[in-house]
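Give me the fold.
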Amino acid sequence: LADSKDMIREQALEDFRRRALKDLAITMVQLSSFTFSRVGAVHYDASTRQMDVGPYKKVDFYAENKRPSSVDHDETIFVEQGPFLDPKQYFLASLDNENITELPHMVQGERKILRLFIDWFVQATSDDNSDFVLAHPDFNLQNVLVGKDGSLKGLVDWDGVATVPRCIGPETLPLWLTPDWDPHWYNYDTEAQCAIDEDDYPEMSPEELDIYREKYASHIDAALRKRELDQPSSCLSKEPVATSRFSRTRVSPLARSLYIAANEPISAARIVPMILKKIMALTSEADYGDPTSMDGDSDLSDIEEGSEDGLTDITVPSELPETVKGLKARN
């Protein structure tokens, strides 16, 4: 009897999650229909009843990181950025304002590799960069309101809403389904196979996250197909589903982690080696050695100076840029 009750509770929870994810996916696809020509904060002029996209404010984690840890700070440091006309400018805005020569050699190497990853990713998704979309500024659990049956009731905390590249827009996975792509904050012990902090909302395992990521991506796919069938000519979005080269939802963990790494130094130290490890695992181990030996403390400072565009070149096999594209199909 106890087992039967547990099964009923588990099924009820699964039904709740399925309904919540489905309703959320439908709502996000509706939001993705509204397109803009630039990245930035949306401003509404009541007198003209027109919307415009201008600069936006964000937390300056680089400046925050330089504050002495021994001193208490009550005020958050913000920086104004944008507007931008292409995704690469958006991804690199914070990195471009950093004086890399002041950093330790290992961190310099990390930043240079990150720039290459962003460049490769933008190139690999170049046909998806023609316009920009509105996105929730904190697409996480605490801002999603649902009923007892999991039906979506509302999304809150829209302060700071802005337009962003499609690769991290409304069709992306919710943040609570991608914690493993930001290892610094992922409270799960993969070796012990258990959440580190059980008192708070326990983290899912990577395997569980994969299951729900695919379920959510399938709901997004279905909502996009329905939108195309229901509104073939009047839909605000100019892009038919059938022409999309890849699933933005499935590639979004990579896109989001690159953006986080470019803006939050504390996360970059773990994200860059993680992505490099994933790339190496997808390519020949005979060429790159054992990819399992790389972790968040790897030395990324072995970089040769180059002159192209004032940046630096990294000695890596030519297959790696193509493998960055492959990550979007497998993760």
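The longest strand covers residues 40-45.
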